[in-house]
């Protein structure tokens, strides 16, 4: 029996890492930028409520049942003084009925709280919502604002305290549109149009990424949401609708523009007044974004140069090929693209 | 080299919990599984309905009168199968051979009708597997069914030859019964396919 | 000592003589004995477990730090696809089947399964499928679209290599093996129970496996059709899932999960059955509420076909569908959870004997509770929109599949190893294996709940720094290596105990069911005399008679045991079904056919020739080659009436 006590003691010791992890889990303060438990919209708040309901119920059941299990597992270890056989209890029907009904009731309660939220969050969006058309590509996000005449990529702006509705389409395979702080995800399915809507309540930027495996660079298909005051949003819209910034007659930016216009770039990218490609992101105002390459690089000259040098090296499988540009060409292009604010 | 009069003496002698022969339980269970198989193929057909981006469309090719004739042949073949089983159960080996061959013949007639219909679709109407959603789902569904019928016909012909060599008598009626179960199943599936593919408003 | 009677070789309708002998590799290749086939399945599945584990370790190394450089994106995507496919189809399922094979006939008092050659065929086809689906590694094109292979990523032009072809064809082969196996076990359970073994007197393990096999029979045809449609899209130009051709990728998702959800119950029910045998044995009292446990199993089987779209809550099916599936999912949690209480009730007031097997069974309960609770959290569709496709889900299914199925299977291994091998495994090493596994497992998978809620999606080959995920990922990697260490200990123990373990005897655990009434390992024919069953836990009833209710041990009934000594005094000659070449011939043919699909279509014809020859020869091969002339031998059925005459020399 001494061996068994050691076993039990080590059992208790093994539970410490579990306990610590659990406590850490409960200390929701240490969350990351893409966390799902720091809601910043009405939709995310509704989900948070259900998460808390199911989580704390689960914790309650966990503590009670595991404690009972542990107590029984330890208390009834066999002893040398035991008779040959314990009482051969076959069951206890009333008890079994009760412990069937109790979980059923608990689950019914969860279902009762869940159902109205399913219907309210999946209802049609309000009529005055700002419409954003989202198109998922391998491996970047296209955002169009049909009512405002804006087309951009990877960075989606929205005004705070106004409902925005996303119509989700795919250009190729299944993706999933997910900005955790703003709401749950919705899959993006070719030949379907899915919908998601919410009203953000906090100004700031929050990251998101594709959440449905979509090929080689699925992990790299990220995006940034920028929630702004109405005034800042209006300013952004105005800047996006404006024609591309004028390029000085000479200098690196002018060289860059010339290189762009004669290179393969024009086959895939749109810059208003320069090119009309639709395979890759619209670059008319690329200089105004804080991220490039769907969020895996910052929009700095160094990162932009890194991208142009060898896109498949940065984003494996990228449809944008390595054009074997010379360093001087790259510098010129960077100057040009950064100027497109 | 003594010829085995009874293919499976072990199996025949066994006591089973249900009183049913193992192979009979096996066949029923297998047919249950096959139900799910055909249900999935039929569901696919229904899902693909109306999704063809180009013709020919079902109304362009479906010929109910023609297919009704081959359907009738298949239904009659099931009657032949029933008669074959009844024959062997009363040890009428000659009768069993006749009815089994008749069943196989009608089954082959059905297959002939399918073959003709398919070749018409492909060569005259321009409907291939890859043409559109209807072509794909139609040929996959009826193709798998036709394959099942073909296997059945081969089985029936083997039974005929086994009986001709004296290997099947009344105490082996199970072999015929199993083939009968399979054959009736394949027939019932065809009734479902015919209804959903041909008769329901296209 | 019982002897096997082998007839003189005889030319059958094929030109090959019937195989003979029961030693050497050829006897393993042609065996139709359920016990050998069980060992083949178990050993093969365990090797694949190691392979799947290595795939996991490489992934964990890659993910240990942000922006990892251990493997590139393509390789990682192949690794996670193959890890999932391997663990589900090539490890948990065949390990379960290994136990179905070995244990079901012993527990129901039969001499073998209903169709021994088809049983062998299932194994060889499984091996063919396992080899085929892993062939891609040889050319750097292992399947890479996830174990769930969502269309239209699996279609051209997005999947141009052979990766997805290996996956589709391999799974089709494996599906055939599974269906053949399930047909066999279902007929065996229905038809080969010993006299007096009514369904409600059948061991709970057999009940759970019966439900599992029914699920396989009804669910596998659906994935067969789904894969066939994908195969036709990839090879024959159809557009079932291709949007540009009028198809719908969501059709794949539906078909896959109509199969996929029953599949996860297929994965867990056998382990639940094993644990339902282990706990009563080592608590020395019956399973608490056996009828409820059985009915729960049936309910789970039934309901499992009605919950599939809970994998699709993010697909935008609409609020009515989401609500309906949320309800059905919560409903299925009830019979699943209730079993946990029954198992705890079994321990209550028992005399708990903590062998390694028992530790794993209790560990199973503890871990399955966690996995089940996180599952309930996903059942609420809006909440699931944050959890779906994140590491929170990865945590959930590893808790139910590793913490549940694998721990349950290890419990079964330690429990039944002595029956199969004749020696017990080393208990000290076993306890080290258990504790290291528990620690490693929880360190690896518990933090995943957290990083999932912290926004880390799954199926990502890397992640950036600054997300707050790096530290936890490193911890998880360390945990994974602890698991690996534990498994190495197990392998050493399993191999070493074959020669040096303590002799087990018939009944090392004072068991409750019929397999403990015969020698370890059992003779070729299992039971010299088919027992007559009068109760659930019939062996316990036979040992302890009427006294077993009152807690007094009663001297065992005379003749109740069929130990080796008894057999020496009264040798019996029981002629079991003979080995056969045809199963492996058919399986080779299937492998070659699949190979032909990815290389040269002419090879398909060669493969088909093998398959056809194999089936043709088989259909004319009798179960037993007939006895030589002049023999007074009786062909014994697999389940004769009790006290059937056997030739005694």
Give the topology, please.
The complex is a heterotrimer of chains A (341), B (202) and C (649).
Chain A: H1 2-26, H2 42-75, H3 93-121, E1 130-137, E2 140-145, E3 150-153, E4 155-159, E5 164-170, E6 175-177, E7 186-188, E8 194-198, E9 204-209, E10 222-228, H4 230-241, H5 252-262, H6 265-268, E11 270-271, E12 275-276, E13 291-292, E14 297-298, H7 301-309, H8 311-314, H9 327-339
Parallel strand pairs in A: 1-5, 4-10
Antiparallel strand pairs in A: 1-2, 2-3, 5-8, 6-7, 9-10, 11-12, 13-14
Helix pairs in contact in A: 2-3, 5-9, 7-9
Chain B: H1 9-13, H2 22-48, H3 58-61, H4 64-89, H5 93-124, H6 133-164, H7 173-199
Chain C: H1 25-29, H2 34-63, H3 73-108, H4 116-134, H5 163-191, H6 204-236, H7 249-283, H8 290-303, H9 319-347, H10 356-378, H11 381-387, H12 391-421, H13 427-453, H14 470-500, H15 538-544, H16 564-569, H17 582-598, H18 601-620
Characteristic key phrases:
heterotrimer, B: 202 residues, mainly alpha, Four Helix Bundle (Hemerythrin (Met), subunit A), 7 helices, disordered N terminus, C: 649 residues, Cytochrome C Oxidase, Chain A, globular, disordered C terminus
